[in-house]
Amino acid sequence: MNYIYETMYILRSDLGDELTDQAIEKYQSLLREQGAQDVETQHRGRRRLAYEIQKQREGVYIQMNYKAPGEAVAILERAMRLSDEVIRYLTTKHEVPAAEVEEAIATEV
Predict the structure, then answer these.
(1) Which residues pair with 93 in a beta bridge?
(2) Measured distance CA(47)–CA(103) in Å, rounded
(3) Distances in whole angstroms, Cα of residue 22 to Cα of each of 17, 28, 41, 55
(4) Strand, helix or coil at 6?
(5) Alpha carbon distance 88, 53 (integer Å)
(6) Which residues contact 63 (CB under 8 A, 6 or more apart)?
(7) How far apart are CA 8 and CA 92, in angstroms?
(8) Taking Cα atoms as reference points, which of 91, 48, 54 lies closest to residue 71?
(9) Secondary structure (3-state) at 8
(10) Which pLDDT band, with edges at 50, 70 and 90, does 94 fall under?
C-alpha cells in the first residue's frame, strides 16, 4: 500500500548551488527509480541551525512530498545516512484519506 510521505532534509551550506541542485536531483531520481509518484520538491533555502550539527552552523533545507511504498523510503534514508552532504533528515508518513482511495479505485474500474 502506498502512503504519502514527507521528507525534510538539510544539506551542508558549504556546497555550491550546482552541487546542491545535483544532490536534490539525485534523491528525486532515487525515489522515482523505486516507484515513487507525485514527487514534489520545495527548496526552503539557507537557514541558521538552532545548534551546531557536524560542525555546521547553517544548512540548506529541502522538503519532498511523494507517494511511495515503504521500501523506497528505506532506500532513500539509507542513501542520506551514508552521504556526506546531508546533515539531518526526517521522514513522516501520512495515510491516504479514504475518499482518495475510493476515487482511485473508481477510476481504475
Answers:
(1) 5
(2) 40
(3) 9, 10, 13, 23
(4) strand
(5) 8
(6) 6, 7, 8, 41, 42, 44
(7) 9
(8) 91
(9) strand
(10) confident
Whose cell is 544532490? That residue is 23
Query: In sequence order, what DSSP letters do the residues of 39-100 get, joined into one string?
Result: EEEEEEEEEEEEEEETTEEEEEEEEEEEEE-HHHHHHHHHHHHH-SSEEEEEEEEEPPPHHH
Q: Which amino acid belongs to residue 105?
A: I
- Yes or no: say if 53 and 60 are a contact pair by the CB < 8 Å rule: no
Any idea which residue has 474500474 for its cell? Answer: 109
Residue 4 in grid coordinates: 504519502
The model's pLDDT over 5-50, given as tens digits with 9 standing for 90+, comes to 999 999 999 988 999 999 999 999 999 999 888 889 999 999 999 9
